[in-house]
Each structure stands twice: as C-alpha cells, then as structure tokens.
Amino acid sequence: MKEQLPLSVEIGRIKKGAMGSTLDAGRNGAFRVVGGKRVFTVIASDQEGWDHVSVSLNHRDPTWAEMCKIKDLFFDPEEVVTQYHPAKSKYVNLHPHCLHLWRDQNNPVILPPIVMV
After folding, report:
1. What CATH number did the domain enclosing 16 receive?
2. DSSP characters for the chain?
C-alpha cells in the first residue's frame, strides 16, 4: 500500500462516528472517494500482515474499471493485489455491494506467465 495516501483520498477521510479516524491513523480508516459521478465508501487497513481495501457503493457493485481506479489511489503501480473468491463456506457478506482488494505484505503473489493472460 502507498506509504502516504493521496490528498484526494485524505480529503474524504471520515473523521467522526464509529469509523472515524485522523491522520494519526496513517493508511487506516474510512474514506469517501469521489470517482466521476459516484462516491465510494472505502475502508483501508494495513494490519496483521495484510493491506486491505474494501470498496462499496449503495446500489450496485463497483465495476472492474472503478476497482482499478481505487487500486491506483491506494497501492503503488507495481504492487499486485488480489480480489479473492473464497470457498462458499467461507463467504462473509456484510454489505451487498462491497468488493475487496488484498495484498499479503510478506508473501508476493505468484502470477501465471504473461503469455497465458
């Protein structure tokens, strides 16, 4: 995850309520991120060996393009992040329109050969 979040993200930091935080929390917190005509709710954390960013909208799932833009705001260009599809028995769904980006801080993701993509 980026060492410092961009000003466009920090401007939208939620500072009050259950998800409220200040700059002292670093990259951890909840944010309102404006993207085109949409306002995304984004929750970011870098705890327990994982970088995690959840992205949600009220009435639909974020698109691939929208997830790519959020990825670019929170992660360095050469960082590989993952959207997992876990076993059905391991699903956790606390919001009907929320997707997640994950990065293991200690173990790089193994990618298939580029010719297979």
Report:
1. 3.40.1720
2. --SS--HHHHTTB--SSTT---GGGTT-EEEEEEETTEEEEEEEE--TTEEEEEEE-SSSPPPHHHHHHHHHHHS-TT---B-----GGG---SSTTEEEEEEESSSPPPPPPGGG-
* Total-model pTM: 0.92
What pLDDT, on the 0 to 100 scale, is given for residue 59?
95
The pLDDT-based confidence of 74 (bands split at 50, 70, 90) is very high
Domains identified in the chain, total number: 1
1 within domain boundaries: no
pLDDT at 117 over 90: no
Domain assignment of residue 86, given as a range:
7-116
18 found inside a domain: yes
Provide the pLDDT for residue 94.
Answer: 85
Cα separation, 55 vs 17, whole angstroms: 19
